[in-house]
Design goal:
Helix content: over 70%
Number of domains: 1
CATH topology: Growth Hormone, Chain: A
Number of strands: 0
Order of helices and strands: HHHHHHHHHHHHHHH
CATH class: Mainly Alpha
Shape: globular
Oligomer: single chain
Distance between the termini: 32 Å
């Protein structure tokens, strides 16, 4: 697991390095604001359709080939961004990267392959920690390389560095990461089934579909908060990019500490179901607290609750989703989950931006709180279904003991 964590972390540093600079790339070519927001969304839009396909492919041919294809494509996409001379090249590069973004679903499936069910949350937490650290170091490094002046910013060098980091991660997979999926399990599941049937198969299972719906609602709320936070901070405190960046770095640090070091022990002691409910309650409380964040201490409380809540919720949800899937379909199920998350990241900013413009700077936070508390109610209802499933499993296994 440490090898996989390091590989994913290096890849995500490159991802985080370029993402905050994409608006500057677009504006450099005279793109209007509408095109800038579309440039940010097209990656998730392409990932929405492609993630289940890559997940299923990883079940058929193994995790390493999918990781290698995804990271090799990232190298090409970053090189294309760095050498772009027109807006369409930026869109094409981002679309290519999103269409081949199978690395996270494959990495999560890899974790599922090599961990016992009771250790699953800890393993998924490592992927979350890689995310958190990548989005702390990446944006900071990108800003350092680009400079502070928007008119003269060096926006090419960060893309070259991101390409180099993805190339390094690619070689990490080639040289140091063994295949996790045994040969006898490859191609056993859904080989002749269409992609739509595969998605319907996942979403047609009562417990699994509810878990994925909770995932959809949480990411929808959090993506909306992320996309409007800077606009809120400008109106609320008169902040600039620096202060907003510090807040997101703080969120990343808390999330990385929790997911990287504590989530495994917490899951063993309390169970993923309880951690999920606690995490959802914290996210909802944090979003409601944003409505009253008229001072820095109140903002610190709200942001801390959001960071800790996401740190508990994401690995617990990913673990529960993984545990409801068979060993031979981990990639497919986690790919569908990532696809649903991509849909949330497309819809969340769009809805939050509309609410911000129509109803004021607090509307998106209130809407997010409603979504999260709906997810919390679903999780409370889900407890009965999970308990019933565990009881049925115990009865099935009882006579064999």
């Amino acid at each position: 697991m440490p090898t996989l964590f390091l590989i994913v972390f290096i890849d995500l540093v490159g991802f985080g390095l370029v993402i905050p600079l994409l608006p500057f790339y677009a504006l450099r070519f005279g793109a209007p604001p509408q095109e800038v927001t579309l440039l940010l969304a097209i990656y998730s839009l392409m990932q929405l359709f492609a993630a289940p396909l890559w997940g299923r492919l990883s079940d058929r041919v193994g995790r390493r080939p999918v990781l290698m294809i995804s990271m090799a494509t990232s190298v090409l996409a970053y090189l294309w961004i760095g050498s772009a001379t027109a807006v369409w090249m930026l869109f094409a590069a981002r679309a290519l990267a999103g269409a081949c973004a199978g690395n996270i679903a494959a990495a999560q499936a890899y974790i599922a392959d090599i961990t016992k069910p009771e250790e699953r949350a800890k393993g998924m937490g490592l992927i979350g920690a890689a995310f958190g650290l990548g989005f702390i170091i990446g944006p900071a490094l990108g800003g350092l390389l680009a400079g502070n002046n928007p008119a003269t910013a060096d926006i090419e060098t960060p893309a070259w560095v991101a390409a180099g980091l993805s190339f390094l991660a690619l070689w990490g997979v080639i040289l140091f990461l063994p295949e996790s999926l045994p040969a006898d399990l490859r191609g056993m599941h859904g080989g002749s089934r269409s992609r739509l049937k595969a998605i319907w198969n996942v979403l047609g299972r009562p417990v699994l579909s509810r878990l994925i719906l909770i995932f959809f609602l949480v990411i929808l709320a959090f993506a909306g908060m992320e996309s409007t936070f800077a606009l809120w901070a400008i109106e609320q405190f008169g902040w600039g990019p620096g202060q907003v960046g510090y807040v997101f770095a703080y969120v990343g640090v808390l999330s990385a500490i929790l997911q990287g070091g504590l989530i495994g022990r917490l899951a063993r002691r309390f169970g993923e179901e309880r951690l999920l409910r606690c995490g959802l309650a914290l996210i909802g409380a944090g979003l409601l607290a944003m409505l009253f964040a008229h001072s820095i201490p109140r903002l610190a409380f709200a942001v801390s609750a959001l960071a800790l809540g996401m740190g508990l919720t994401q690995p617990s949800l990913n673990s529960l989703i993984s545990r409801r899937a068979g060993r031979e379909e981990q990639g497919e199920v986690l790919g569908v989950s990532q696809s649903v998350g991509s849909l949330s990241r497309v819809l969340g900013p769009a809805v939050a931006g509309f609410l911000f413009a129509q109803f004021g700077r607090y509307a998106a936070f209130f809407w997010g709180a409603v979504l999260v508390f709906a997810a919390l109610l679903l999780s409370l209802m889900l407890v009965r279904a999970l308990d019933a499933a565990k009881l049925a499993e115990a009865k099935t296994m009882g006579p064999t003991r």
